[in-house]
Specification:
The chain has four helices and no strands. By secondary structure, the chain is mainly α. It has two domains: 43 residues; 37 residues. Helix 3 runs antiparallel to helix 4. The longest helix is centred in the middle third of the chain and has 24 residues. It is elongated.
Amino acid sequence: MNTRTNNNVESFHSQWNTAVSVRHPSSWTFIRCLKDQQGATETTIDAANRGDAPPKRRRKWRNLERRLKRLKRDYVDGVRNVDNYWEAVCHCVVSF
């Protein structure tokens, strides 16, 4: 899935607009898009139920998660105090 947002509703809306691609679609076009969307959703659910690996996330989100996990580990290990930990977390989030 190639989405340009991390908000699920905005992502769906963007995909829907791309699929329909006209301002006032005919009834048949609208029904076809609904069926296509249902099929894609069922395929995704089936893959999750089978235990397939989730889709690979973008590198920037993987890097952010890696940084936050490292900061948490430093805090738990006593390398950082609470103030230093939150300052570093805020810096990471703001820089993304």
